[in-house]
Task: inverse folding
């Protein structure tokens, strides 16, 4: 497994932006390659920037035929991948909408000999050619420590999860809950709900949690969009005792800066990693098609984004994609 820190991400991006082909091979080597990319729905700013990174990266390889599609839901993505498999693409990149449901078709593609590159979210299988994802476990560890220290080691907290039982949900939940149990034994996880990576689900889950929990000191949301929905539910319920909310994903970019600095209860931080991994997935796929060495797993380090560094974070990681 290869873990890429922030500075390495920037270097990879700069390499992609200068349109330098992998290992200086010529575009003529790529003629007749066909690559399909099956993405999830564009539900927030982070997903939109990932798509933009991919769209920019593929222009570096004009002799490869690229097909890029966004699925509406998990079943739509399965149908999409079935078509891609039947049409005989030379490689397929998958950003899973559901890392469990997608396994049978992903494994079928892989076992048929088609290079299968998993992007952003793990699947519940090791049967793939390469994986490029963010450090979900490490980001959740950071979130636990942030909340733990903010509460000075004592309090009751709730968690908004993300499609409970999927690989990305399990990574974030295990990283957070194990760190709380190990390092902050006087903090109790008293309630959970499923935020499902969207505001409506976050709102609904938070309403149920609030009804069942007379006091909550802090909330960890697996997703920023769900956290925004939860804030609405908290405000409507008049629950002023909730002091801290920490999110994940950097998806609610239009509002995150305001929420960090102006809202109550306090949205103090989001754990985020760089959507430029879309560049990395394209570059990795070209390496694979050209028969070059590549790591099976590449894990992008998670960054703590808060009121102190959000402007710099956005300038460093998003300005080139705007």
Result:
């Amino acid at each position: 497994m290869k873990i890429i820190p922030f500075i390495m991400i920037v270097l990879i991006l700069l390499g992609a932006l200068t349109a330098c082909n992998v290992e200086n091979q010529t575009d003529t080597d790529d003629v007749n390659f066909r690559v399909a990319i099956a993405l999830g729905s564009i539900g927030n700013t982070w997903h939109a920037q990932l798509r933009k990174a991919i769209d920019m990266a593929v222009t570096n390889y004009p002799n490869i035929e690229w097909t890029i599609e966004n699925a509406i839901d998990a079943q739509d993505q399965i149908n999409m991948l079935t078509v891609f498999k039947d049409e005989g693409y030379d490689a397929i990149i998958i950003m899973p909408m559901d890392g469990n449901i997608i396994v049978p078709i992903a494994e079928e593609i892989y076992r048929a000999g088609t290079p299968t590159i998993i992007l952003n979210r793990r699947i519940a299988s090791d049967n793939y050619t390469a994986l490029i994802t963010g450090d979900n476990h490490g980001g959740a560890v950071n979130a636990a420590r942030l909340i733990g220290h903010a509460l000075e080691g004592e309090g009751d907290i709730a968690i908004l999860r993300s499609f409970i039982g999927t690989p990305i949900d399990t990574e974030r939940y295990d990283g957070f809950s194990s760190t709380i149990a190990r390092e902050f034994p006087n903090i109790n996880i008293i309630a959970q709900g499923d935020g499902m990576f969207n505001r409506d689900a976050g709102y609904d889950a938070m309403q149920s949690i609030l009804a069942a929990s007379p006091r909550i000191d802090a909330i960890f949301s697996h997703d920023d969009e769900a956290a925004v929905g939860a804030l609405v539910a908290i405000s409507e319920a008049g629950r002023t005792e909730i002091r801290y909310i920490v999110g994940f994903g950097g998806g609610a970019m239009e509002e995150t800066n305001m929420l960090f600095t102006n809202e109550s209860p306090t949205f103090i931080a989001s754990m985020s990693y760089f959507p430029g991994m879309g560049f990395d997935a394209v570059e990795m796929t070209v390496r694979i098609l050209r028969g070059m060495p590549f790591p099976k797993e590449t894990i992008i380090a998670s960054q703590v984004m808060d009121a102190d560094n959000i402007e710099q974070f956005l300038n460093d990681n998003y300005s080139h994609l705007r």
Remarks:
- Residues 167-183 form the longest helix (17 residues).
- The longest strand covers residues 187-194.
- The chain has two domains: 2-135+273-302, 136-272.
